């Protein structure tokens, strides 16, 4: 949510954001409702003051006071209706994109910032190496042949877009979890990443979190993640939703709280199962682990001072790049355009890893800078050392969507024998397994 004072004073900027993000919102209607709301607040306060003054007078008129009370009651009812309409319209106002965000209608205007790693062909020696002599398979083919991914039984039991992962692929997922925690909780490694990225920020580690996977509707709305509602799993009997990412409950952890300036940054690395209906993806990625209704995810969430929030996002992206580079997976970093970013995002960066079996880059990580958009809705603040109180800025990002990370490893590390070499960075977490076969 934006500050209404900012909206009044920067109408052209807000109109541009509404247009460029393809948001269906009538700003003139919001401003008119805001004006009426302020009139009613001023009038009701004046009426209340008059009522108090007359009731304390020595010769007050009972009938006159009764009329004032009735008038005040009618005005209060109108104000409540106007407040509700004002709130609904305010909830629809998008965040303002950063200056470096490309302007464009859809994904065709996204900009590649950089690429890393050489896309190599395959050979009998195994893994992604030069001098290829076989066509790489898609992960679901490898998974079925190695009996580590079972889609058919999952479809019988649960339906489409579910999978049984078995054997060493399960160990690989848990290895990725251990690997991620080992990086994000290690201040020495984080200092190294900050130095390489040339960022002047605290090296404070991320605190591990196992958050709830259910969230109340009003809190989901404050996170601005409830919509599109058709993507969410809802339990009507308890009026509660299953989360689509750990960030949904981690970001709301400090709702109605105020940090001390010296406590920031507060950084979390959370693990949870995520649930998505994939309502708008009929026919897409039906085979395999790319687009599932249930998957496990490692998510970063940070609360930081306003002046450091964009640098914090750059740091988070640098951490993701470090982890992917350690796994030796080719990737590219994109900054998303206005038409392909979320309403709540000020800056949105995606990382796409090369998938040899599919012969293209696929999105594996997302980093969202929210500025104070969520914090204002959640009432999460920071008291500065100067005594001033501000809303904190918030960042969230994928550390690893585990199923997609497994897909990337399977396809990049496959051999001509149909086996999968385990990346060296993960072997110490695999109980001695160096190759899945």
Automatic annotation (TrEMBL):
It comes from the Bacteria. Gene3D superfamilies: Bira Bifunctional Protein, Domain 2, Serine-tRNA synthetase, tRNA binding domain. One of its GO terms (cellular component) is cytoplasm. The record marks 398 as: Important for serine binding. It catalyses: tRNA(Sec) + L-serine + ATP = L-seryl-tRNA(Sec) + AMP + diphosphate + H(+); tRNA(Ser) + L-serine + ATP = L-seryl-tRNA(Ser) + AMP + diphosphate + H(+). Pathway: Aminoacyl-tRNA biosynthesis; selenocysteinyl-tRNA(Sec) biosynthesis; L-seryl-tRNA(Sec) from L-serine and tRNA(Sec): step 1/1. It is found in: Cytoplasm. L-serine binds at residues 276, 299. GO terms for biological process: seryl-tRNA aminoacylation. ATP binds at residues 276-278. One of its GO terms (molecular function) is ATP binding. It holds the Pfam family Seryl_tRNA_N. Its EC number is 6.1.1.11. Residues 187-423 form the Aminoacyl-transfer RNA synthetases class-II family profile domain. Keywords: Aminoacyl-tRNA synthetase, ATP-binding, Cytoplasm, Ligase, Nucleotide-binding, Protein biosynthesis. Belongs to the class-II aminoacyl-tRNA synthetase family. Type-1 seryl-tRNA synthetase subfamily. This is Serine--tRNA ligase. It comes from Candidatus Yanofskybacteria bacterium RIFCSPLOWO2_01_FULL_43_22. The lineage of its organism: Bacteria, Candidatus Yanofskyibacteriota.
